[in-house]
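[step 3/7] inverse_fold.run input=structure_tokens len=394
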């Protein structure tokens, strides 16, 4: 398929941009990676044929604007722009092209992914302004989880809440799971239909997913990307009664409490405000910081507990796969998570683990249950869908 496609992947505090010149390309011609957005320590780095390096105070909008300006000549005559959209609600079950009507529909579910959908919509609008006339495509995190059965996606609440308000578990990071499941099968030289996988996507947002024969059957995130594992700034699972208790005790309004659960909890909150970033916490821990250790220990235990729970979906698990920034790079964290999972004899090969996987991505000893590291590539998936949904000729 002809023409170039730009991919805009807005995470909660990151922005990944990639420009592809054809649908068959596995590596983009230009890549940009912005991290720690919304803080004083934000940075934007680029690889490929443009010059751009910025750091300091920067948000998603400033990073995307700087990139589009710097890459102006390469972005001429784009075939399409693919956007990651985290929450598609019940209306969007697969990738689609965007127009005023679909954008208005998306706005309605924005409150269900407060750290993401508003940024995703900002990216769509900014591209419409700075790159007018180019078709925009939305690729949803929720789409891959459409195969989760009702018994798994329902909460133990009145059924009318689901029927009337769409209260159910949706699941996120689906584009990542779609890529990693296919890539794992390719590396194992097996068909995805022959594999039962548990994938842990550990980045700023963290979730895990049970994939049976290529299809998502269970995942840890829910109605919103707040449920499940301990994350960078998000609490993950809590007792819902905690909200009433804290509201009555501290007289904080609901908005403030939700803000704390989304933006000031997780690794950041548990480390007493030290950091939401695993690299910083590991460094602090190695220097004897007890708060960092406490946060990391809780992160590892909660992750192991959820991975073990997901394994109830299978009679046999073919592989546990780590992905996302932490999953792909933090050997120490992978080792500690598996050490917390005591009823299965996972045994890592320390050379494989330290090098983030052998040639196939294996990190466990041969002859022991298979554990792998498989780097995700959400951008490539988004590019593929964008090529498919836009035409060869304008
Ligand atoms: N070498 C590393 N060691 C430990 N943690 C890492 C490393 N590289 C990245 N990370 C962590 O990965 C997380 C970001 O993950 P990433 O998947 O890139 O983010 P996002 O969810 O925004 O896409 C941060 O906590 C960061 O500290
Ligand atoms: C859904 C989600 O948590 O995304 P991210 O990891 O990019 O924050
Ligand atoms: Mg991410």
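[step 3/7] decode complete -> sequence:
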């Amino acid at each position: 398929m002809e023409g170039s496609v730009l991919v805009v992947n807005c995470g909660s505090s990151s922005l990944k941009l990639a420009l592809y010149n054809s649908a068959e390309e596995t590596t983009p011609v230009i890549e940009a990676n912005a991290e720690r957005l919304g803080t004083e320590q934000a940075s934007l780095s680029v690889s490929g044929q443009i010059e751009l390096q910025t750091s300091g105070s920067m948000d998603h909008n400033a990073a995307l604007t700087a990139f589009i300006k710097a890459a102006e000549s390469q972005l001429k005559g784009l075939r399409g722009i693919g956007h990651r959209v985290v929450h598609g609600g019940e209306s969007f079950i697969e990738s689609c092209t965007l127009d005023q009507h679909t954008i208005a529909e998306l706005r309605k579910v924005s409150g269900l992914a407060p750290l993401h959908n508003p940024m995703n919509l900002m990216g769509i609008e900014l591209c419409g302004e700075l790159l007018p006339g180019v078709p925009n495509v939305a690729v949803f995190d929720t789409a891959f989880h459409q195969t989760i059965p009702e018994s798994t996606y329902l909460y133990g609440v009145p059924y009318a809440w689901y029927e009337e308000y769409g209260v159910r578990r949706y699941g996120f990071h689906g584009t990542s799971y779609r890529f990693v499941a296919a890539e794992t099968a390719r590396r194992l030289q097996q068909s995805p239909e022959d594999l039962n996988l548990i994938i842990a996507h550990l980045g700023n947002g963290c979730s895990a997913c049970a994939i049976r024969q290529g299809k998502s059957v269970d995942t840890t995130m829910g109605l919103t990307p707040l449920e499940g594992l301990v994350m960078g700034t998000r609490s993950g699972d809590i007792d819902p009664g905690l909200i009433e208790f804290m509201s009555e005790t501290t007289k904080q309004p609901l908005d403030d409490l939700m803000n704390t659960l989304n933006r000031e909890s997780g690794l950041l909150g548990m480390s007493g405000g030290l950091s939401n970033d695993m690299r910083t916490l590991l460094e602090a821990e190695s220097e004897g910081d007890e708060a960092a250790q406490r946060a990391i220990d809780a992160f590892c235990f909660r992750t192991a507990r959820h991975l073990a729970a997901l394994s109830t979906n299978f009679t046999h698990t073919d592989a546990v796969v780590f992905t996302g920034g932490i999953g792909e790079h933090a050997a120490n964290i992978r080792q500690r998570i598996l050490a917390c999972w005591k009823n299965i004899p996972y045994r890592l090969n320390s050379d494989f683990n330290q090098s983030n996987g052998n040639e196939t991505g294996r990190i466990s000893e041969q002859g022991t249950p298979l554990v792998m590291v498989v780097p995700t590539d959400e951008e490539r998936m988004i590019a593929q869908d964008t090529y498919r949904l836009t035409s060869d000729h304008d």
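[step 4/7] annotate
The first strand starts at residue 5 and ends at 10.
The chain has a mean pLDDT of 95.
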